[in-house]
Amino acid sequence: MNKQTIKTSIQIGAFAILGGLLCLKPTHVIHKETVTIYRDTCDSEFIRKISQIETGGNDSTVAENGQGRGRFGIYDVCVTGSGLKSLLGFTHADMNNPEMSTAVFWAMMGIFCHLHHQKHGMYPTYEELARKWAGGPNGDEKQTTLKYLNKYRTL
């Protein structure tokens, strides 16, 4: 089991959105100043593949005319949509910080899992989540995300 500690100034319960929405294996243990995220090997492999496709794992990336930032190429809409902008004051520029971008990435995966479960009565696979990351909440149903899926499968 991998362990990553995120030190950030947060209030207890501010990360409730993550714990409540994530359907994957990550568990968030909240302390006043520290969030410890435990992920199993599958989750680590999933996140590694996405960062490799997006930026080659480069945290300092600013791409797509400044819209995609950090290792996951996170857009400002993800920072806002994840709830972490209003909950913790995260900004789009913060997405070049690996801990903050990882928190936003997992929050978005949780939202995608929740929406997928509501629509289909089951949680998405990693491949479906990869397509959602490329094409939004319904990305797994779009033909335009098949190329992204093929890149994911080859890593």
Features:
single chain; 155 residues; alpha+beta; Lysozyme; three-stranded antiparallel beta sheet; two-stranded antiparallel sheet; 7 helices; 5 strands; 13% strand
Give an account of the 3D structure.
With 155 residues, the chain is an alpha+beta fold. It has one domain (41-154): Lysozyme. It contains seven helices and five strands; from the N terminus they run βαββαββααααα. The strands form two sheets. It has a three-stranded antiparallel beta sheet. Strands 4-5 form a two-stranded antiparallel sheet. Helix 6 (126-135) crosses helix 7. The longest helix has 23 residues, at 98-120. It is globular, with a radius of gyration of 15 Å. 35% of the residues are buried. Residues 1-39 have low confidence and may be disordered.
Helix count from the secondary structure assignment = 7
What would you report as the Rg, rounded to the nearest angstrom?
Answer: 15 Å
Provide the CATH top-level class: Mainly Alpha
Major beta sheet summary: 3 strands, antiparallel
Q: Mean pLDDT, as a whole number?
A: 79
Reported by name, the CATH topology is: Lysozyme
Shape: globular
Number of folding domains?
A: 1
What percentage of amino acids are in beta strands? 5-15%
Helix content: 40-55%
Q: What is the architecture at the second tier of CATH?
A: Orthogonal Bundle
Strand order of the largest sheet: 1-3-2
Instruction: Count the E strands.
Output: 5
Question: How do the helices and strands follow one another from N- to C-terminus?
Answer: EHEEHEEHHHHH
Uncertain stretches of 5 or more adjacent residues? 1-39
**Would you tell me the structural class of the helices and strands?**
alpha+beta
Distance between the termini: 21 Å
